[in-house]
Design goal:
Jelly Rolls; 19 strands; about 325 residues; 19-stranded antiparallel beta sheet; single chain; mainly beta
């Protein structure tokens, strides 16, 4: 089921588009800039709605169903689950059960916008040292462009622990006077994992409390080109099983990017600087649901209360929005 926050949000979204990152929005993008919501109460993914379940090989690993009484307020929610699907031995094969932002509702790359969604685990969390993604924000990639463009923001899971990462083009780490890489990071410097083989750097933002996954050791450089301020030491614990996220994104690989992450009504982290990738497609988009490299067994997540808006007040209290300047 889809609702609108009002015409004002559509005009605000257009006026906030970053003119330095692209041409004027087309009529299709003007429509896309309107606020979106999906509360799953209709028991269907409506044609022409905010979200869709893509049909391709990877997505056929998954399925979705609507659960009565499983929503945040005792209403309906959507369950997204995946199981073994890739042929064995599986190389360069992924398994997904993701809901994608509708193609005709995508925004021009660099548009500042808020997202909201709630997620809970159904059953045990995957606890192995394996790549799992729960939500991701990406830039479109034109057909025929080689390489692997990772999400500029992602909510990930590894060894049973949730954490957020940010991505941009390859960055050099800060170095001391003798030329050695500086680590650990100081002040607002961000720990990054730089990967020359795919020309990208990934920054570690924040995780749940507890021991970091073993792969955390890959983040062994520091950068000032992405700056971070952590308002909490770790992600808050679930409330009655739910993690409620409100997230502001504004990608800009040239240094004017910004991310604000709220979880369970608490300001978790602020990020600024080089966010996202250069020289790809014209749009940005969001998708959520379980996604992993080929693996054994099944994995299920439940989602509710999706929304997108240019107006911070649709997500947070007005006083908070004023404090953020958003």
């Amino acid at each position: 089921m889809q609702r609108a926050f009002g015409l004002a949000a559509a005009f605000v979204a257009l006026s906030l588009s970053s003119p330095a990152l692209g041409a004027e929005a087309s009529p299709a993008h003007a429509y896309a800039a309107a606020a979106l919501t999906e509360d799953f109460e209709s028991g269907d993914l409506d044609a022409g709605g905010a979200l869709f379940y893509k049909d391709n090989f990877e997505q056929r690993a998954g399925q979705f169903r609507f659960l009565d009484g499983a929503g945040k307020n005792g209403s309906r929610a959507i369950e997204l689950s995946l199981s073994e699907h890739c042929p064995r031995p599986a190389e360069d094969c992924s398994e997904r059960a993701e809901l994608w932002e509708a193609k005709d509702r995508r925004l021009p790359y660099g548009t500042p916008v808020w997202y909201r969604f709630s997620v809970r685990f159904a059953g045990e969390r995957p606890a192995d040292d394996h790549r799992h993604v729960m939500a991701q924000w990406k830039r479109t990639v034109p057909k025929g462009v080689p390489g692997n463009s990772s999400p500029f923001l992602a909510l990930r899971l590894r060894e049973g622990q949730m954490f957020f990462t940010v991505e941009t083009h390859l960055l050099d780490g800060e170095r001391d006077g003798d030329g050695t890489a500086r680590f650990p990071c100081a002040g607002e410097e961000l720990a990054i994992w730089s990967r020359p083989y795919d020309a990208q750097s990934r920054g570690w933002l924040i995780a749940e409390a507890g021991e970091k996954p073993a792969r955390h050791s890959e983040y062994d450089l520091c950068t000032r080109q992405i700056r971070i301020k952590r308002h909490l030491p770790a992600l808050p614990e679930a409330r009655e099983g739910w993690f409620d996220f409100a997230i502001f994104v504004k990608p800009d690989p040239e240094g004017d990017g910004r991310i604000e992450i709220f979880a369970n009504d608490q300001h978790v982290v602020s990020v600024a600087g080089r966010i996202g990738h250069r020289d790809l497609g014209p749009d940005q988009y969001f998708k959520f649901g379980p996604y992993r490299d080929a693996d054994e067994g099944s994995w299920t997540l439940i989602y509710d209360d999706f929304a997108r808006s240019a107006d911070c007040r649709d997500m947070l209290a007005q006083a908070t929005c004023e404090r953020l300047g958003l």
